[in-house]
Amino acid sequence: MKQVVKKVATAMTIAAVLVCSSQAITTKAEEIKEEKSLGGLSKVLDNYNNEGISNKSQSTTLLSTQISIPENIAIAKCNDYVNIREKAGTSYNIIGILTKDSYGIVLEVIDGWARIQSGSVTGYVSTDYLYMGAEGTAKAKELASLLATVTANSVNVRKEPSTLTNDNIIEEVVKGEDLAVLSAEVVTKNDPGAVLWVKVALDDSEGEEVVGYVAKDYVDVGYKWKSASKVDIEVANSSPLRYNLVNESKKYIGLRYVWGGTSLTTGADCSGFVWAIYKKCGLNASSLGLPRTSSEMARGGNKVTSATIKPGDLVFYGDSSGRVNHVAMYIGNNQVIHESGRQTGCKISNMYYRKVVTMRSYLQ
């Protein structure tokens, strides 16, 4: 029996309330790379500007963010992951995986199989492994994360909400990257470069949470869920070892970040995650000459480039001085998987989501 699911998104909202006051401000955008001018500000700001209030240097303003949950959302019901198949049935090819607590939009249900769309993957999942209907909605409310998605080609994340100096730039983040929002406040400054700021978390560095501010004009703030990962052609054509490394690593999307950790159960840090995945796939760190920390890893192995890197190789990132403080594993299609930090845990990012210092391979 085939059941067509309505594609109407019903608004079920949970308010993320941001406390309000404001100031007179200058609305010139911070220009980095082809960034657009500021638009869509709250009426509150207009009112304050019209009143001519110009003596305040900093305050917060109202920005209402809501969770809008589609009526046909489903959440993965599994301990680790569930396969997404080309057609309804276990004999068909696996085209993606849906990890624990990831979401999908149910397009139709056929004899116990749901056709879902999640991220860039559309395929079939057994309904035995999905929270659907009221259960799916309840789980979606529980699991939604408030994220700031970069909409400009690139944007600076700064130590303080100010463009008056470049000495406060922590790093540059590229379009499409999701940053965890730490505070339900938008800071406003009497700043010629940017008006509204959002407090966000970056990759943890040596166990320390890195916090910064990004101009609201260049991010889209909203609630999101983890999505499916597809089986990539580049990965499918790689060696069995590299194929296993990529597919195994994707099973742990969302794994919590633990400084000093090397566990795929209780948590790991960025280099510990690489260690654990390599070990899970039968590799011995000592035999490979693979050190424990990201800075040491970046000095070993064989250097590779964007033209020669293969799935399973390592990509290293650093601070503004070029000092390596983070490592990720390349998974094909210009993407990496990494233990980002305590706010987001293990996630997939664009390989160039921040400045790449070097790329190394410890594999044959």
Automatic annotation (TrEMBL):
Q: Which UniProt keywords apply?
A: Hydrolase, Protease, Signal, Thiol protease
Tell me which InterPro entries the record gives: NLP_P60_dom, Papain-like_cys_pep_sf, Peptidase_C40, SH3-like_bac-type
The protein's matches in PROSITE patterns, at most eight in alphabetical order, are given as:
NLPC_P60 (PS51935), SH3B (PS51781)
In terms of superkingdom, the source organism counts as Bacteria
Q: Which residues form the NlpC/P60 domain?
A: 239-364
Can you cite a GO biological process for this protein?
Answer: proteolysis
Q: Which residues form the signal peptide?
A: 1-24
Q: Where is the SH3b domain?
A: 71-134
Pfam families hit by this protein = NLPC_P60, SH3_3
For this entry, the protein name equals Hydrolase
